[in-house]
């Protein structure tokens, strides 16, 4: 449970040495520092990256690969500063995020209601299920050629692809979520006087939330990847375009920078929007086990 | 005044795979008076849950009639509140949110329903837990909440299907005593399904003993033990043991017959024959 992590730091009673037999004061201090660190959100969120970056740095410094193919963190940071200053990165980032926002916005607006309609009405479901599976199988990128013919190298084309990637996994997760709602809960609500509409809003909607939240997460992840792929192919601006274009002119540091930016943005989205939402709902209600729970 | 009247109830199930029809309930009739506590006992698989589900409106009957408060039952409704063995609390609602759910469906204004919700939480010993979520309560507390949620809605009948079966023996005793106390205080009409004979005797005014499948009413045993009841004194009264023994005998008789039929291949065909006859 999330609130467990907020419990106050256990303090050593005054006057007693918290020393375990055999442990030197240095070890004790190190342990204390470690305990203190693991309670900081920043450390918990960023700490795991320290060894990754260290390894990256080490490999770059040792010169295992040619510098034309593999650059270290300092080069990437330098490139970041440079592109920020020139205003290229902010511009590309804005483009990418705008496309993502459109894609995700339309994707959710279409996928969620359609998912619930398919889930709630058996007849609609029987009709749409094969179609759903068929179109889910046609990979999103496979639509790009025809989409470019239809919409040109435009925001519409990229949005279409993102919406497409998001809608199908989202619909499938909504259907799974609605099926997961225990029959007993529906019955309980009905015998407490809830009509069909109330049952939908009071029981089915929240009951399906764990699966739907998972679907939103998956959908967003897919959409994010589709965006980069679409930018590489449609290629007029954006982070994906930057990386592909940099490769063309042989500027590896921009490729590395692009990768880092993509990862960081996704992580930030997860840490700032998705995870808190899940903590406040399904984890609070005890419907899914929290990642940080004790038991 | 009769709160619940079951007349000539029959239920056939059709097996989803074989398409075979099975008569779960042969012919069951009995009634529950207003403010009365009636338990239904019977061998496992005799159709106790099925009877309760039909009264609740979750399952359609094949033949017969079920009347609650003068109206024939069709579909679930707030006049028949159900306490489930699995508690079936809404995890996304607080304890108070669960209790007032029925009142909210009725459109009772917030202040009024919250006051009433708190009153019923007090009644079941959950005062002060209103802001918690169900998963933060113990199993016993969850079932108290299940009872409070139904009682707050003031149904014509409270239906309970082995509500304490998944709770440890010690807590179960406590919950049974609390249920009796609540019953003696407020006199709701209760229809209680169980396979625990002592529990049935301790709680009930009358016990309906069903035969094995296809079930009929074997006997209705009146429990005229004085109220208020407590386990400590109940177990010492000879009348309590007498009634429990009577009920046990009725069940053992039947279990014996059922076991015999199961071992005998001819018996199985017999059961099938009955099922076909029931079509
Ligand atoms: N949905 C169903 N489809 C087919 N048969 C069913 C269905 N539900 C119950 N039955 C059958 O009806 C009979 C009665 O079942 P029921 O669950 O009502 O028994 P019960 O008395 O509650 O048993 P227990 O004491 O084990 O809870 C059983 O033989 C069961 O196999
Ligand atoms: Mg049962």
Could you please describe the fold and organization of this structure?
The complex is a heterodimer of chains A (295) and B (279). Chain A has 295 residues and is an all-alpha fold. Chain A folds into 2 domains: 7-62, no CATH class; 87-294, Orthogonal Bundle (MetI-like fold), CATH 1.10.3720.10. Chain A has 12 helices and no strands. Chain A has helices spanning 25-39, 41-46, 49-62, 73-86, 88-120, 122-137, 144-151, 155-180, 183-191, 196-234, 239-249, 252-283. In chain A, helix 4 (73-86) crosses helix 12, helix 5 packs parallel to helix 8 and helix 7 crosses helix 8. The N and C termini of chain A lie close together (8 Å). Mean pLDDT of chain A is 82; it is low at 1-20. Chain B is α/β, with parallel strands linked by helices and 279 residues long. Chain B has 2 domains: 2-79 and 155-270, 3-Layer(aba) Sandwich (Rossmann fold), CATH 3.40.50; 90-154, no CATH class. In chain B, strands 5-4-1-2-10-9-3-8-7-6 form a 10-stranded mixed sheet, sandwiched between helices. In chain B, a hairpin with a 4-residue loop joins strand 9 (206-210) and strand 10. In chain B, helix 9 (238-263) packs across helix 10 (265-277). Chain B is globular. At the A-B interface, helix 9 and helix 10 of A face strand 6 and helix 3 of B. The structure holds adenosine-5'-triphosphate and magnesium ion (MG). Adenosine-5'-triphosphate (ATP) is lined by residues 13, 15, 22, 24, 42, 44-50, 195, 213 of chain B.
């Amino acid at each position: 449970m999330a609130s467990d992590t907020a419990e106050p730091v256990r303090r050593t009673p005054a006057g007693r040495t918290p020393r375990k037999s055999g442990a030197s004061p240095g070890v004790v201090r190190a342990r204390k520092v470690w305990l203190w660190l693991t309670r900081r959100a920043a450390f918990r969120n960023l700490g795991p990256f320290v060894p990754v970056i260290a390894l990256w740095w080490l490999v770059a410094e040792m010169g295992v690969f040619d510098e034309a193919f593999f650059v270290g963190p300092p080069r990437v940071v330098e490139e970041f500063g440079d592109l920020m200053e020139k205003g290229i990165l902010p511009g590309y980032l804005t483009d990418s995020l705008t496309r993502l926002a459109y894609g995700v916005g339309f994707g959710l607006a279409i996928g969620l209601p359609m998912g619930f309609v398919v889930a709630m009405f058996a007849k609609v479901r029987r009709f749409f299920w094969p179609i759903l599976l068929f179109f889910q199988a046609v990979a999103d990128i496979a639509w790009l050629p025809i989409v470019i013919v239809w919409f040109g190298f435009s925001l519409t084309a990229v949005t279409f692809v993102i919406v497409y990637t998001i809608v199908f996994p989202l619909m499938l997760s909504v259907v799974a979520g609605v099926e997961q709602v225990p029959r007993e809960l529906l019955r309980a609500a009905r015998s407490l006087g809830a009509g069909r509409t109330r049952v939908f809003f009071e029981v089915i909607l929240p009951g399906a939330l764990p699966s739907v939240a998972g679907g939103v997460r998956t959908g967003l992840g897919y959409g994010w990847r589709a965006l980069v792929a679409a930018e590489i192919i449609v290629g007029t601006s954006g982070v994906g375009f930057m990386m592909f274009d940099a490769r063309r002119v042989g500027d590896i540091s921009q490729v590395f920078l692009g990768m880092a930016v993509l990862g960081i943005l996704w992580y930030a989205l997860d840490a700032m929007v998705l995870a808190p939402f899940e903590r406040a709902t399904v984890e609070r209600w005890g419907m899914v086990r929290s990642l940080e729970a004790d038991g | 005044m009769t709160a619940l009247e079951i007349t000539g109830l029959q239920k056939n199930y059709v097996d989803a795979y074989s398409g075979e029809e099975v008569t779960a309930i042969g012919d069951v009739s009995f009634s529950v008076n207003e403010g009365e506590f009636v338990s239904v006992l019977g061998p496992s698989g005799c159709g106790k849950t099925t009877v309760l589900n039909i009264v609740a409106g979750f399952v359609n009957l094949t033949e017969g009639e079920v009347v609650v408060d003068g109206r024939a039952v069709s579909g679930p409704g707030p006049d028949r509140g159900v306490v489930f063995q699995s508690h079936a609390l809404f995890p996304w609602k607080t304890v108070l949110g669960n209790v007032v759910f029925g009142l909210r469906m009725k459109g009772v204004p917030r202040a009024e329903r919250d006051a009433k919700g708190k009153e019923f939480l007090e009644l079941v010993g959950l005062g002060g837990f209103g802001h918690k979520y169900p998963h933060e309560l113990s199993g016993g507390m969850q079932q108290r909440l299940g009872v409070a949620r139904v009682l707050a809605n003031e149904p014509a009948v409270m239906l309970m299907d082995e509500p304490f079966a998944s709770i440890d023996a010690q807590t179960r005793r406590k919950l049974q005593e609390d249920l009796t106390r609540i019953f003696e205080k407020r006199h709701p009409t209760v229809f209680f399904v169980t396979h625990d004979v002592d529990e049935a005797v301790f709680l009930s005014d009358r016990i309906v003993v069903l035969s094995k499948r296809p079930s009929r009413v074997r006997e209705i045993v009146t429990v005229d033990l004085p109220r208020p009841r407590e386990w400590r004194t109940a177990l010492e009264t000879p009348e309590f043991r007498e009634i429990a023994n009577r009920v046990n005998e009725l069940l053992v008789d039947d279990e014996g017959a059922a076991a015999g039929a199961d071992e005998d291949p001819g018996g199985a065909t017999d059961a099938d024959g009955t099922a076909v006859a029931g079509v």
